[in-house]
Write a structure and sequence with these properties.
heterodimer; A: alpha/beta; Rossmann fold; 2 domains; four-stranded antiparallel sheet; B: mainly alpha; globular
Chain lengths: 249, 257
């Protein structure tokens, strides 16, 4: 079975909205403990692909294997069990705006782990500190900058130590230093905890920094895939255009 | 041409049937979320405060004016037949059986139903509902169920408050402005209201509360397309609830008559 080593294995994914075909026969495999980066321009179906991997959208056809289970036909209650092992960082953070930073990050713990309040808050404080967010515990999302909101979203995704994290444009809207810090964090979670990451990005520079394997999405299909070195060697006009436009050597 | 017309009619009918089916399924999932653990008491109390406590002011104001108008109109009509002493009965029966549940529901829809639809719509378009799902949290249990429970508790209580406030204001107005006898007013109220009237009023309040929170959460949950979508969802929630409350009022009145 080819899903033994694969943490995520997408097979022949098609997604249509009405008559519009957004994803076409997409197949990709991300190995356990690796960072897979899906790169592509706006409107190429990257975010839709990520939502399908998280079970937030059902593909029109195809299979989505996570940890050896095909989640595509699963009912919502089953999907919750699978999502319990995953984390997701949204492009615009998607923090609950009626909750403080502390409450937002603590929410997954409160809902799923039998911890006392003090222990829960200690874990949240530790996580916030590691992301440079100490002192923001009692602030609401509306009081934070975009970059801070993004990091709170990251803290919320990481707090239960998931084995798989999906990132939707994690560096967009961040200053270069914070973006680099997020990249380092993605690599650190891979190296220290063996976490698998799927990163949606339009930044070739970021992809080159963090990707174990890259997937170039164009017009709803995987146009090229491989390691950074393989893609550079492989060429192909679209891939070259990306490297050149991003001025990445 | 007739074929095209039939096609459009058929497609419209299918859309309506599909919409009703989806909304019914939504209600079933909301009820499931309410009865299945974990019970989120904190969220229920929070929603009870929002839908119930914070509606007290508007309910008090509308019930006071309703009581005043009823007393005045009742006095005007009944005095033509020399039956002013029945003003209390008229006010009490009108409020208990009809006006308190209907006007109360419409006011709560305008204040709380619209806010529920807008809040949930905003959560939908800013991916907060997807974020809950990504954290393996059932949005029905976390967002919808507490609001349903709170509305079911708050609806009848606000209706009772509407009735009592309206009656109290009507009594004070009738005695001090219309110069009716306080004893006669109180007597006509107490002799005209039967247990069945109270049950009818509170049953209506319960049904209207379900309708209000069902439509508000459903419209908000399915909002699409940014701020404009949220606005449309909110408007639809208020309009549809108002029409449904009036239609249900007729059905219930006919059934309980």
């Amino acid at each position: 079975m080819n899903t033994v080593e694969a943490h995520i294995d997408l097979k022949r994914i098609c997604m249509c909205f009405g008559s519009k075909e957004v994803l076409r026969d997409v197949g990709l495999t991300v190995q356990r403990g690796h960072v897979g980066v899906v790169i592509g321009g706006s409107g190429t179906g990257k975010t839709t692909l990520l939502r399908i991997m998280m079970g937030l959208q059902r593909p029109t056809s195809g299979e989505v294997w996570i940890d050896g289970e095909n989640i595509a036909p699963m009912p919502e209650s089953e999907l919750r069990r699978v999502r319990g092992r995953c984390g997701m960082v949204f492009q615009y953070s998607a923090l609950l705006d009626s909750l403080t930073v502390m409450q937002n990050v603590a929410l997954p713990l409160k809902e799923h782990e039998p911890l006392g309040r003090a222990e829960r808050e200690a874990r949240v404080r530790e996580m916030l500190e590691s992301l440079g967010l100490a002192g923001t515990e009692h602030q609401y999302p509306a009081e934070l900058s975009g970059g801070m909101r993004k990091r709170v979203g990251l803290a919320r995704a990481l707090i239960r130590k998931p084995s798989l994290i999906m990132y939707d444009e994690p560096a967009s809207g961040l200053d270069p230093l914070t973006a680099r810090r997020v990249d380092d964090l993605i690599l650190e979670t891979r190296d220290r905890f063996g976490v698998t990451s799927v990163v949606i990005s339009h930044s070739m520079a970021q992809a080159v920094r963090i990707a174990d394997r890259m997937y170039v999405l164009d017009a709803g299909a995987v146009a090229a895939e491989g390691t950074v070195a393989e893609l550079k060697a492989q060429g192909g006009s679209l891939v070259q255009q990306y490297f050149e436009a991003s001025r990445v050597d | 041409m007739p074929l095209a017309l039939m096609g459009r009619l058929g497609s419209g009918a299918l859309d309506i049937a599909g919409g009703v089916g989806r909304a019914s399924l939504f209600l079933v999932r909301a009820v499931e979320g309410a009865v299945r653990p974990p019970y989120r008491w904190g969220l229920i109390i929070e929603q009870l405060h929002f839908i119930g406590n914070r509606s007290v002011g508007i309910i008090a104001l509308t019930s006071a004016f309703t009581g005043l108008v009823l007393a005045l109109q009742g006095y005007n009509a009944l005095s033509r037949f020399g039956a002013e002493q029945l003003v209390g009965s008229l006010v009490a029966l009108s409020l208990v059986r009809e006006l308190a549940p209907v006007l109360g529901a419409l006011m709560v829809t305008a204040r709380a139903g619209s806010a529920v639809a807008a809040t949930m719509g905003n959560m939908r378009v800013t991916e907060q509902i997807d974020a809950l799902k990504s954290m393996a949290i059932d949005p029905f249990g976390y967002l919808v169920a507490p609001r349903v429970v709170a509305a079911l508790v708050a609806g009848p209580m606000l209706t009772a408050m509407f009735t009592l406030t309206g009656l109290g204001v009507a009594q004070v107005f009738s005695v001090h402005v219309l110069r009716l006898d306080a004893g006669a007013f109180n007597h006509s109220v107490s002799t005209s209201i039967k247990t069945g009237d109270v049950v009818e009023g509170l049953s209506k309040a319960l049904v209207f509360a379900v309708a209000m929170i069902w439509i508000a959460t459903y419209r908000g949950y399915h909002a699409r397309g940014g701020a404009q979508g949220v606005g449309q969802a909110t408007t639809r929630a208020v309009v549809e609830t108002s029409v449904l409350v009036l239609a249900l009022d007729y059905v219930l009145t006919a059934l309980l008559f």
